[in-house]
Task: inverse folding
């Protein structure tokens, strides 16, 4: 603070602090508190707001248990509330997206950190960043075109003879997976790249010299070293995927439903902001809980991720 | 079990730069062999070629008579000790040592027992469950040696492993390394730029410069009979006189220099003008009267006390700086600064040598 004042003067420093404080308070803290407060209140006609029926309760949160459907889990028929089902599918497919992102990003990160000639690294980074110059909406829409039943991907695969009839890509959660992996893979790649590039190459060579095959080197030397990077990348990809609205909306099929879409339906279609808020906080709390449990299982500390 | 290593005409290029140039050396099983040279002389490249991280551009490397071309580092009977040791910081000491065994599928109890045994061998019992960060520099050194020995290599390759240690510990570890080598009988190839280290530990030393092996000999020979000027000046100090060669007979020659006429041994391959004569400071004699031959008159301008010896720096009347080292045993009169003295040497103790071998 002293340093900032000395460098920019009292006026400019005060202005910067004020802007940051305004942003934090008015655009982050107050809206969240307002939503949190309203999530405990019932959805009432305007005239009844503040009236005798306007009391705090968990009713909005308990709405996730309304309306059940029949489904099977591991071959066993079960009855699950629809929104609970949506929630678990969202968590499950977010985990799948995270795992796919890791599987794709790890070899690339290792290649960038340890194998590639450092002189060509800027080119590779540029190639990775170029897609980010296009808006997320357009990129998701581009995938919608690419994956269309009579779209370019099917044409290409038919042309090279990889398939003999077009594949329906936009079905169930398939296209959503593809879109989410594409959108969030860089959030896995860069933490991994940072973690792996901080590993002393001599350790990899020492392991090889002691007779370790390549997979053992990765399992015992590179991966344990990169664990904080894996953790922070996974947390980011998982949270962003579970909280994504755009990709599931554009690339979703008739049989896919993301929990964020349910929230949006409460908010936009039912105009019930109270229940929508309750669902939003439910997603936030349960995802945080899930991430904490997974981190505890893998013995990752929060301070490791902050690195 | 130990194996010999043969380098036959081995060269290694990095782009247009030739790091190692036609190296030929035959290292015997169980030998302690050092490559000595300044940084950039190619000694580390030789080590990395033997361990398999670099393939030679040409030539053959044999370990125990077996051609090593195309063999990855994890397929060779060598163990490399890195300059920074490269211990695995996330594993305990015993897991570090047993890593090579874990890779080979040895069960945990046997691994643990072997690690304990090796820790006793390197004089570090009871450290098995510590982490790498809890050890001192010298202890880490020992763990690195134990980890390399665990895979029962036929050849141990050491890349300046003592360079990070302080002087006292370095001298202690020299003796330790030598003792471990004798105890295990494994062939050691040691890389260093420290001539004291190489001379003290090795059975034989290969002195390198500009990718070429200049001389391979036992430490005494390297020091007493260097084959060329590079070896003479890299391994120890010299007073060097440059001049024109005179008569040569019976391996002795005369050299006319601006500082006087000298007589010394001559190596083959030296002729003509501008050749150099090398004499060690400890072979340079200081006297009040002129010696019968090889004498230079001068003035003492500095006397530095080094403990075991006293270095007398003098400037000859012809303007050349010379150093003589006197033993600190009271047997010789130590001149004072400003004294007029004669500096001389025995013709048998001085040599006229060619320059370094750098031809391609």
Result:
């Amino acid at each position: 603070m002293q340093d900032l004042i000395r460098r920019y003067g009292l006026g400019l420093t005060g202005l910067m602090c004020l802007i940051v404080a305004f942003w934090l308070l008015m655009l982050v803290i107050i809206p969240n508190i307002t939503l949190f407060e309203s999530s405990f209140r019932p959805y009432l006609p305007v005239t009844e707001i503040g009236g005798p029926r306007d009391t705090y309760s968990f009713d909005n949160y308990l709405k996730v248990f309304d309306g059940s459907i029949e489904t099977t889990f591991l071959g066993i028929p079960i009855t699950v509330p629809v929104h609970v089902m949506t929630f678990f599918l969202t968590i499950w497919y977010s985990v799948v997206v995270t795992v796919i992102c890791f599987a794709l990003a790890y070899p690339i990160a290792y290649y960038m950190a340890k194998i590639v000639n450092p002189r060509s690294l800027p080119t590779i980074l540029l190639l990775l960043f170029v897609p980010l110059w296009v808006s997320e909406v357009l990129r998701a829409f581009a995938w919608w075109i690419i994956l269309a039943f009579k779209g370019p991907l099917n044409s290409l695969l038919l042309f090279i003879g990889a398939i003999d009839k077009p594949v329906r890509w936009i079905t169930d959660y398939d296209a959503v997976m593809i879109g989410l992996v594409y959108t969030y893979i860089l959030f896995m790649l860069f933490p991994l790249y940072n973690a792996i590039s901080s590993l002393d190459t001599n350790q990899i060579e020492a392991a090889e010299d002691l007779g370790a095959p390549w997979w053992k080197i990765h399992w015992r030397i590179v991966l344990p070293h990169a664990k904080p990077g894996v953790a922070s990348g996974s947390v980011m990809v998982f949270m962003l995927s579970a909280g994504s609205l755009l990709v599931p909306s554009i690339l979703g099929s008739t049989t896919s439903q993301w929990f964020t879409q349910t929230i949006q339906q409460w908010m936009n279609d039912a105009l019930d902001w109270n229940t929508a808020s309750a669902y939003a906080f439910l997603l936030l709390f349960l995802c945080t809980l899930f991430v904490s449990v997974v981190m505890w299982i893998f013995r990752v500390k929060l301070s490791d991720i902050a690195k | 079990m130990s194996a010999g290593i043969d380098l036959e005409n081995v060269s290694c290029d990095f782009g247009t730069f030739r790091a190692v140039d036609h190296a030929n050396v035959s290292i015997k099983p169980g030998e302690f062999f050092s490559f000595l040279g300044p940084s950039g002389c190619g000694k580390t490249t030789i080590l990395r070629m033997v361990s398999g991280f670099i393939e030679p551009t040409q030539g053959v490397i044999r370990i125990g008579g077996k051609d090593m071309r195309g063999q990855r580092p994890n397929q060779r009977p060598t163990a490399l000790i890195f300059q920074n040791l490269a211990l695995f910081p996330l594993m305990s000491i015993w897991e570090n040592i047993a890593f090579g065994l874990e890779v080979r599928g040895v069960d945990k109890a046997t691994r643990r027992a072997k690690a304990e045994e090796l820790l006793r061998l390197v004089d570090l019992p009871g450290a098995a469950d510590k982490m790498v960060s809890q050890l001192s520099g010298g202890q880490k050194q020992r763990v690195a040696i134990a980890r390399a020995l665990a895979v029962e290599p036929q050849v141990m390759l050491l890349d300046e492993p003592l360079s990070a240690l302080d002087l006292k510990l370095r001298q202690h570890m020299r003796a330790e390394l030598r003792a471990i080598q004798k105890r295990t009988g494994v062939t050691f190839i040691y890389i260093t730029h420290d001539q004291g280290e190489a001379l003290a530990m090795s059975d034989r030393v290969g002195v390198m410069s500009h990718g070429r092996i200049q001389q391979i000999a036992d430490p005494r020979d390297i020091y007493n009979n260097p084959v060329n000027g590079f070896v003479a000046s890299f391994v120890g100090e010299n007073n060097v006189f440059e001049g024109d060669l005179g008569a040569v007979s019976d391996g002795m020659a005369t050299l006319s220099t601006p500082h006087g006429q000298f007589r010394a041994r001559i190596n083959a391959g030296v002729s003509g003008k501008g050749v150099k004569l090398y004499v060690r400071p400890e072979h340079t004699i200081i006297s009040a009267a002129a010696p019968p031959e090889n004498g230079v008159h001068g003035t003492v301008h500095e006397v530095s006390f080094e403990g075991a010896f006293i270095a007398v720096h003098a400037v000859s009347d012809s303007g050349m700086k010379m150093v003589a080292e006197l033993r600190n045993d009271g047997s010789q009169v130590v001149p004072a600064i400003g004294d007029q003295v004669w500096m001389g040497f025995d013709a048998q103790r001085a040599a006229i040598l060619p320059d370094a071998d750098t031809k391609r």
Summary: Chain A has one domain: 65-306.
